[in-house]
Amino acid sequence: MSEAIGLIETRGYAGLVEASDAMVKAANVQLIKSIPIGGGLITTIVQGDVGSVKAAVEAGKEAATRIGNLVASHVIARPAAEMLKFFVG
After folding, report:
1. Tens digit of each residue's pLDDT (9 = 90 or more) over 14-54
2. Stretch (H or E) spanning 56
3. Comparing C-alpha atoms, which of 68, 81, 85, 70 is closest to residue 23?
4. What spatial distance separates the first Cα and last Cα of the chain, rounded to whole Å?
5. CB of 23 closer than 8 Å to CB of 64
């Protein structure tokens, strides 16, 4: 099973909660952490197998877009071990 991380960035905490809820309901992923960026931006990171992370990020994008808070999203399939260590711990 290949690991992946997925990121959703929203404007405001409500968008983050909406996107995070949609992601964990849509696929078998784990919420890893949220990172406040500043200026009202906040990013959440999920981890799981590549297919699950892609499905989760897609669901999170739709949820955040519905309430007008999506800023960005990205999936990193098979990230380098150092990336996982840095972001996941």
Report:
1. 999 999 999 999 999 999 999 999 999 999 999 999 999 99
2. helix 50-66
3. 70
4. 19
5. no
